[in-house]
Amino acid sequence: MVDGLEKYFTIRYEDNIVKMLDQRYLPHQTRYLSCSDYHQVATAISQMVIRGAPAIGAAAAYGMALAAYRSNAQNHLDLMADLDKAASVLIASRPTAVNLTWAVKRIMDRVKSLPSHNVSETTRIILEEANSLAQEDEQNCQLMGQNGASLIPVNANIIHHCNTGALATVAYGTALGVIRAAHEQGKHIHVFVDETRPRLQGARLTAWELQQLGIPYTIIVDSASGLLMQHGKVHLCIVGCDRVASNGDVANKIGTYNLAMAAHVHHIPFYVAGPSSSFDMDARDGTAIVVEERPDEEITQIGGVRITPEGAEVYNPAFDITPAKYITAFITEKGVIYPPFGEHFHGIITH
Amino acid sequence: MVDGLEKYFTIRYEDNIVKMLDQRYLPHQTRYLSCSDYHQVATAISQMVIRGAPAIGAAAAYGMALAAYRSNAQNHLDLMADLDKAASVLIASRPTAVNLTWAVKRIMDRVKSLPSHNVSETTRIILEEANSLAQEDEQNCQLMGQNGASLIPVNANIIHHCNTGALATVAYGTALGVIRAAHEQGKHIHVFVDETRPRLQGARLTAWELQQLGIPYTIIVDSASGLLMQHGKVHLCIVGCDRVASNGDVANKIGTYNLAMAAHVHHIPFYVAGPSSSFDMDARDGTAIVVEERPDEEITQIGGVRITPEGAEVYNPAFDITPAKYITAFITEKGVIYPPFGEHFHGIITH
Questions:
Q1: Can you spell out the DSSP letters for B55-95?
Q2: What is the number of CB-based contacts under 8 A between chain A and chain B?
Q3: Which among B262, B312, B320 is the nearest to A261, CB-wise?
Q4: Which residues of A are catalytic?
Q5: For residue A1, what pLDDT is reported?
Q6: Which candidate in A46, A159, B14, B87 could, as Cys together with A93 as Cys, close a disulfide (CB 3.0–4.6 Å)?
Q7: Long-range contact list for B292-295, CB < 8 A, 24+ apart?
């Protein structure tokens, strides 16, 4: 099926330039940003030109490829020093999604495994590895879509939070990929799109993607979910994840926890979709996950228009932690995982 | 105590003009709108120049006074016809808050009780009754403040939704009046201000009022309440109400129910403050309350800036219904009411 989304790409490496669709301008403009060094990539991640755990993982991998390409190192040791520096900068660009660390570590592990210490050969292999990672991300999304679509009824009203589509990944999407797969199977899907304050990724990005895909949707404010559930209008919720702890606690966009509590109260299934690269087996539980705080202006201004009084105090956490007990199942590229999660992750999540 | 808020008033009747602080321009501008007939008052209510259940009750009462003053009726029957028409228009200006109906009915009951059928005398008495209603609203808020302040700990972090302060009433406020009374008693209060999408009454109006009053506050997005509660940062929630059904179900600003569910999950007290005029003993439960749907533009645009894709579908309910079981107690001018509400309302709520 050809759809409107195929005209666009989220991220691509071409001629030693990382090109990204600049998500700050969507849905009104489709502009691409070109990064020619890893610092620009890190800035793009931190300013949310590109966002979504899988997408920023790919961006970090390509950032490492740029770091290698732009390095003036004449020998392996100097190259490794440059790569270590780039790794630190890229990992620090945003703290919560584990995919950044995962992607950078994957590149570094590959480099460390090389028998040859030839600088240009290493540089070539880093790009090869980044391209593999990006390709696998797309394949994983397709698999998640297939695995998850089986959980979606033939007629389904679904609440979706934030953006987890093609824009949040290299292509296709995680939670939105599941919705897309169900739609492609001919199921009758309608999505209630949480607008997702403060940055409105739902109202801006998810609405735009669903429009391109021809999937019916309705935008709501984040706090309208309870009313819809009370009226029996919601069959399930599905969200993505920025980091899953080893016990199944989930860090995801602020508001995920409130949605999960509402679903719990109404006995509505609450699914979390994400690639195994978003699982952090080193985090014992949600308390081990750093929740990023972002600038006040995301709340005090919208589209450059000031909302709040001058001098207003603001607390702007970008993520929250949903305890494992509120999650019906995880949808991964390796299958659907049910509770008890700690036990069932073993053997499935391996890194 | 003199504070910054005393410079302003929410609504006032002077020289046969109803003047209202135009809340659409706050916090950036303090402009007043003058209404010289009841149609203008109804439009001001429906466009939310003035909002908040008690404040629109007072506005409707003054609208009736304008209707009488502007009537060309030469006899009682013609005046009654004009008043009936005004009553319908004012009641229809917004459907959910019961205070509109209550205020208009109070005026009409007073008129019907008059022994004299003198048109100018009736006109004078309608204004007198509207002024009484407004004065009582202010007194009731003071009483609610005193009754509610006893429930607030000496050190309290409070989540507050929407705006329930001086701007939502004739003066002082309902839920925010309770917060204000506790602050005036020297308690150490900090308010987490739900920004309250879509119209941002929290970020715009409540933040402005708290700033004028010198009460410390922090603005959050509505869906951050769960994270704060999880971190033990919230001691109680307090909200207002647009209509309370006879079983204790509450219609209030969209997002109230989601906040109540989060408080319930975390065993945090959830208080509802409102004058007895917001209680509708004719509504058996929440299902009997009409939830107003408002224009798409409240969600698709912010400050005139378009957020969503062109053609996006939107669902914009202005209120939700919080079931009685999630409410710890009601704070009214007549005292604090604990469950079982249906039983305890009897004898306290009398109209």
A1: HHHHHHHHHHHHHHHH---SSHHHHHHHHHHHHHHHHTT-S
A2: 181
A3: B262
A4: 242
A5: 39
A6: A46
A7: B292/B94, B292/B95, B292/B96, B292/B317, B292/B318, B292/B319, B293/B317, B293/B318, B294/B198, B294/B318
